[in-house]
């Protein structure tokens, strides 16, 4: 059977959904193909102990403006589906001091200056070093001609050990999922600029109060279908046909049945590692393939620990340092899953060699320092996303593909494309909107 669509989008992650929603909004007839049984890609709900959790605890920030605006387009109430927490960071070091930083209701960047000058756990030399960091970034307009590692940036600006360990490194790991030794300073500075230099609210932390599928993907699918589009789940695109350098159709496989869909416009919104098979036949795209082959990937592990319902952290999110555990979230505080703590570990490390039981026990022991009495663990669940994100390394922006390709009607979207952002929901959404704009 052959169908005709204005635009075919491949992949119903946040990038593909963003592209499909924007095109639908502009009156295009869109069909979206997703190989998995549900939409959402790397940001989706999974079930644990009869309730929904996420494939990885996610955190958004106020500067994710495109993400927030698109959620509203598909009918999500962002005030109730996200808990907005004015910047309040507590990072507890197992061996030494605790950092507590709270931004007051002052315009940016005064809120950050005030937060740094009043932060608990910092000495005068740390505060001065942090201010010098901000001044250096501003002087360089948040971009260096020659990209360097985040670690070199810290050295160049005289950041103290305490600042690096308790503030900058946790921020780098959580936003870029890349160790500071390898992470791109230019990407880090771009996120820093968006979060801290425009509006005070940009630095707010936004924690989902609903599972990730209900935060955007489910509503996006409904929006597309309610407006004349079609979303095909469990449908893998096997091939993109091109004639005379122009896209003509795609072939999909659903339940072992091949089907062709005619279209002159295709947006490929898969993760980078899945794109190779789709474009391998098209020698015009060899340069894209070559660049993607240079990408490395980093894992993210989330350990869910269920304690008795009255177990509570002092605040929704607490950082840990000198431990395997990096951030602990109290899901009782923001999504009514009382006693459920999610612990996030970004990047590779010794935890990847541990089996789930050993890792759970280690994390359970580590987060005991957040309570006066160690709570009893009743259930646990470990999710390892081995290729959670591309590694956002030095000079990565030089090899990230653009949204347009040299084949007419073929566009790319995905967090790995040239957004200037690390692999984040905002990066994914921005890439989808950019690809849709090219289509339009
Ligand atoms: C554990 C974890 C924690 C994270 N934490 C955060 C966070 O706190 N904040 C944040 O902003 N970001 C976070 N991220 C990153 C964020 O989730 C990703 O950047 C974003 O979801 C990527 O979206 P995408 O649409 O670009 O790609 P994907 O989500 O990978 O979507 C691609 C889709 O394409 C489908 N597909 C692949 N091949 C085909 C084919 N041939 N045919 C049809 N479909 C196909 C896949 O099944 C998938 O659904 C995290 C990611 C993970 C994994």
Write the layout of secondary structure elements.
Blueprint (H helix, E strand, L loop, with lengths): L1 E3 L2 E4 L3 H12 L4 E4 L11 E4 L2 E4 L5 E2 L3 H9 L4 H4 E4 L2 E6 L4 E5 L7 H9 L5 H16 L10 H7 L4 H16 L8 H12 L8 E4 L3 H4 L1 H10 L3 E3 L2 E9 L2 E9 L2 E6 L3 E3 L3 H8 L6 H8 L3 E10 L10 E5 L5 E4 H5 L4 E7 L9 H12 L11 E12 L19 E3 L12 H15 L1
Parallel strand pairs: 1-14, 2-3, 2-15, 3-11, 8-17, 15-21
Antiparallel strand pairs: 4-5, 6-10, 7-10, 8-9, 12-13, 13-14, 16-19, 16-20, 17-18, 18-19
Description:
The protein is α/β, with parallel strands linked by helices and 440 residues long. It has 3 domains: 2-50 and 61-68 and 211-295 and 394-439, 3-Layer(bba) Sandwich (FAD/NAD(P)-binding domain), CATH 3.50.50; 100-203, protoporphyrinogen ix oxidase, domain 3 (Orthogonal Bundle), CATH 1.10.3110; 297-390, Polyamine Oxidase, Chain A, domain 2 (Alpha-Beta Complex), CATH 3.90.660. The protein is built from 15 helices and 21 strands. The strands form 5 sheets. A 7-stranded mixed sheet has the order 9-8-17-18-19-16-20, with helices on both faces. The chain has a 5-stranded parallel sheet with strand order 11-3-2-15-21, covered by helices on one side. β17 (317-321) and β18 (327-330) form a beta hairpin. α1 runs parallel beside α10 (217-226). The radius of gyration is 22 Å and the shape is globular. The mean pLDDT is 92. It binds flavin-adenine dinucleotide (FAD). Residues 10-16, 33-36, 41-43, 55-56, 58-60, 236-237, 269-271, 274, 278, 300, 302, 385, 388-389, 414-415, 423-428 line the site of flavin-adenine dinucleotide (FAD).
